[in-house]
Each structure stands twice: as C-alpha cells, then as structure tokens.
Amino acid sequence: MVTVHREAGFRFVIFVDDHEPAHVHVSGDGNAKIVLRGANGQPEMARNDGFKAGDVRKALRIVAEQQGILLERWRELHG
C-alpha cells in the first residue's frame, strides 16, 4: 500500500499488485474506490462506503485534477 496523495482530509492509496482497472482507494470520513479513467475518460466512483455526497464530489474533483500523476504512479507500481 502506497500513499500517493493527501489533500483536503483525504488519503489516496494505491495497493501494490492490485487489479485493473487503474484506481485509487480514498480514506477520510469514509472509504471509496475511484477508477482513474472511466468510460468517458474521467474518474468515476466504483464504491462509496460512508462518504457524504459533498465528499464524493470533492474526492472525484481531486482525482480529476491529479489524474495524470495518479495514472503515472499506477504504472510505476504495476508496470
């Protein structure tokens, strides 16, 4: 497990040897899994466990802003 970003009270983690599609796990006042590049090329929520709607929007916005860096980190960790 590698913390790849922290912002706005969220921690964004990529697990080593995790499965495709490329995604991050987000923790804060809940837990979520966000796919880095969904069907439309934008991040999309795969699972939300306890985040309020505003926190979901905020986490998705952060992942969208950091998408290039997060995808690069995914490739570094998974080849």
Automatic annotation (TrEMBL):
Q: Name one Pfam family in it.
A: DUF4160
InterPro entries assigned: DUF4160
Q: What is this protein called?
A: DUF4160 domain-containing protein
Organism (species): Sphingomonas vulcanisoli
List the lineage, top down.
Bacteria, Pseudomonadati, Pseudomonadota, Alphaproteobacteria, Sphingomonadales
